[in-house]
Amino acid sequence: MPLQSVSNYWPLLVYALAVLGLIALMLGLSHTLGQKRRDPATHEPYESGIVPTGDAHIRISVGYYLVAIMFVIFDLEAVYLFAWAICVRQAGLPGLVEASIFIGVLLVGLIYIWRLGALDWGPHRQNPPDRQKK
């Protein structure tokens, strides 16, 4: 039995060797056909046709990262709901209840981050000090 089970894996071995051969071929061709001269501009960063100026270490607001993370979270919500929408008839009532709970939890999370002010993009205004009544 062990000899028969080993013989079933020969396509996997052939595939692995083909992948390794293709990788070696691409690396060898890029080394052979690639640019040989070294200009000072070769090691300069180049982004979308714009030559960079100034320091690359700039401070970016945490709000930017917060919005990016929230986008990823709520984008995944759409992926899960799309998968549920495809099999809505097979899922039946239990699937509807589970999807409703899922949407409810995400709605609570959205309300929470809204109340925290994470969705406020405008400049932060300071509240004027309370005026004392005389």
What report would you give on this structure?
- The protein has 134 residues and is mainly alpha-helical.
- It has a domain at 62-116: Up-down Bundle (Methane Monooxygenase Hydroxylase, Chain G, domain 1).
- It is built from 4 helices and no strands.
- It catalyses: a quinone + NADH + 5 H(+)(in) = a quinol + NAD(+) + 4 H(+)(out).
- Its EC number is 7.1.1.-.
- Keywords: Cell membrane, Membrane, NAD, Quinone, Translocase, Transmembrane, Transmembrane helix, Transport, Ubiquinone.
- InterPro entries: NAD(P)H_OxRDtase_bac/plastid, NADH_UbQ/plastoQ_OxRdtase_su3, NDAH_ubi_oxred_su3_sf.
Features:
134 residues; mainly alpha; Methane Monooxygenase Hydroxylase, Chain G, domain 1; flat; NAD; transmembrane helix; cell membrane
